[in-house]
């Protein structure tokens, strides 16, 4: 974090005086966007065929081992130049298949992560609009894997409309079960 911006993170700690962060803490409203911009800047020049970035998740790809190794070197060099460090315990290197942002990515393509899909399958019946919106949000994340998603979810989306009474109908039950 730029020293001139540290004062913006000042806080007190039970009579211990004033404290400031030296690095960007998560929880600040702009921290994710700022960190994403930082990572995009650090890895600028590397194509999506070399690596994909989402916050602190970087997936490095290659068509064969040599290209993959070359892309690893490029990414690591850029991180080193920016004085960014990796946590070895969180690194999965040279995998043919990785879990990334709720998906399994491999040479065969992209599919849903069974562990994440289990959360949808185990979801209990929504009792109110808030719970229904949470369920729909998770389902919408995986909509590309559900043929006719919007037709199936339409009845559930209607229940989330402003000032609409939350009445769980047979159509809602069918849609809910279909999405699960």
Structure description:
The strands form 3 sheets. A 3-stranded antiparallel β-sheet has the order 5-6-7. It has a two-stranded antiparallel ribbon with strand order 1-2. It has a two-stranded antiparallel sheet with strand order 3-4. The protein has about 180 residues and is of the alpha+beta class. A hairpin with a 2-residue loop joins strand 3 and strand 4 (about 55-60). The model has no long low-confidence stretch (mean pLDDT about 85). It has 6 helices and 7 strands; from the N terminus they run E-E-H-E-E-H-E-E-E-H-H-H-H. The chain has helices spanning about 30-40, 65-80, 115-120, 130-140, 150-160, 170-180; strands spanning about 10, 20, 50-55, 55-60, 95-100, 105, 110. The longest helix has 17 residues, at about 65-80. It is an enzyme of class 2 (transferase). It holds the Pfam family RVT_1. Its EC number is 2.7.7.49. InterPro entries: DNA/RNA_pol_sf, Rev_trsase/Diguanyl_cyclase, RT_dom, Viral_Replic_Matur_Polypro.
Number of beta strands: 7
The averaged pLDDT comes out at 87
Strand content: 5-15%
The largest sheet has its strands arranged as 5-6-7
